[in-house]
Amino acid sequence: MTENELRWDRVPQVTRSGEEDTQTMSSGGCIRVSGVGPQHTEATKIWFGQVSNDPGYRSLPHHHGEAETGGFVLRGQGRIYFGEGYREYLDMTAGDWVFVPPFMPHVEANMSVTDELVWLTTRTPDNIVVNLPEVDDATLEGFRRS
Question: Which of 3, 101, 102, 146 can pair with 113 through a Cys bridge, CB separation 3.0 to 4.6 Å?
Answer without folding.
Answer: 146
